[in-house]
Design a protein that fits this description.
- The structure is a single chain.
- This protein is an alpha+beta fold.
- It has a domain of about 150 residues: NADH Oxidase (3-Layer(aba) Sandwich), CATH 3.40.109.10.
- Helices cover about 35% and strands about 10% of the residues.
- The chain contains seven helices and four strands.
- The chain has a four-stranded antiparallel sheet, sandwiched between helices.
- Helix 2 packs across helix 6 and helix 3 runs antiparallel to helix 7.
- The protein binds flavin mononucleotide.
- Flavin mononucleotide binds next to strand 3.
- Belongs to the nitroreductase family.
- InterPro entries: Nitroreductase, Nitroreductase-like.
- This is Nitroreductase.
- Keywords: Flavoprotein, FMN, Oxidoreductase.
- It holds the Pfam family Nitroreductase.
Length: about 240
């Protein structure tokens, strides 16, 4: 990772000044963080970048809760308790069995890279569960952003706006010398999360992003996912 001390230029930005393509290519999901807290002005700068994301009719549906310190520890304990009890209350479904064909192949390849990277031997269910539980320990991150959204129609358009926001947030983290990971798992216990963060039922929890300074020595940060060539996903016409 970059040196965590970002430079402040004369536009007031906290950017490291990386070229756009470097930011895009350096961003990767971080699964091991240092305990060092991120200065508040840098978190604000990242949030202000994310705020520039486009959205349907400029509705800006993201309702972001940044959780740190004792509150993050309280939330982690509450979520791990629900995990232990198997008390899942997601606002939106998620099921690996819904993937098919190429998508299922990619999901399986990701799962293999994930457990291998985390040092879990095939068939070691106990280690597997312990590694999965790291999701609700925020991979040791000192901060997490919870992305709540209002409930409109079938939710698809709102969720696409949230994705735009989340990726801008993630790229901004990289640009600030930070790292993050989007986690569907952080939406698995929506009721408890709303209760701990005092969020109204009006808002649905899509996912969360753990963030902070990457720990270069964490096993989870050895995982490097590739991408198919654009020829697999893009069709040119005309
Ligand atoms: C919306 C979303 C949810 C995700 N949820 C999780 C999660 O719950 N736990 C996790 O470890 N990784 C999660 N990931 C990370 C993906 O596994 C990762 O983005 C993918 O493997 C590509 O790797 P990269 O982000 O390092 O490029 C999620 C990614 C996205 C975009």
């Amino acid at each position: 990772m970059e040196n965590p001390t970002s430079t402040k230029d004369n536009t007031g930005s906290q950017s490291t000044g990386l070229a756009f393509q470097d930011v895009v290519r350096r961003r990767k999901s971080c699964r091991g963080f240092l305990p060092t807290a991120v200065p508040g002005e840098i978190i604000t700068s990242v949030l202000e970048d994310a705020q520039q994301a486009p959205s349907n009719c400029n509705t800006q549906p993201w309702n972001t809760h940044i959780v740190s310190g004792d509150k993050l520890r309280e939330l982690s304990a509450a979520l791990l308790k629900e995990l232990e009890a198997g008390n899942f209350t997601p606002d939106f479904t998620f099921d690996n069995d819904h993937f098919y064909g190429t998508y299922s192949d990619r999901q399986k390849a990701q799962g293999k890279a994930y457990y291998e990277g985390m040092g879990v031997a095939r068939g070691d269910r106990e280690s597997r569960r312990a590694v999965e539980a790291l999701n609700w320990k925020f991979y040791n991150a000192p901060h997490a952003a919870f992305l709540f959204m209002p409930s409109f129609g079938d939710h698809v358009r709102v969720a696409s706006d949230m994705g735009m926001y989340a990726q801008t947030f993630l790229l901004s983290l990289t640009d600030h010398g930070l790292a993050g990971i989007p986690q569907t798992g952080l939406g698995f216990f929506a009721e408890t999360t709303r209760k701990v963060l005092n969020v109204s039922d009006e808002f649905k929890l899509l996912f969360g992003i753990s963030f902070g300074f990457a720990d270069p020595d964490a096993p989870g940060n050895s995982i490097q996912m590739g991408r198919d060539p654009i020829s697999k996903n893009v069709t040119f016409h005309g």
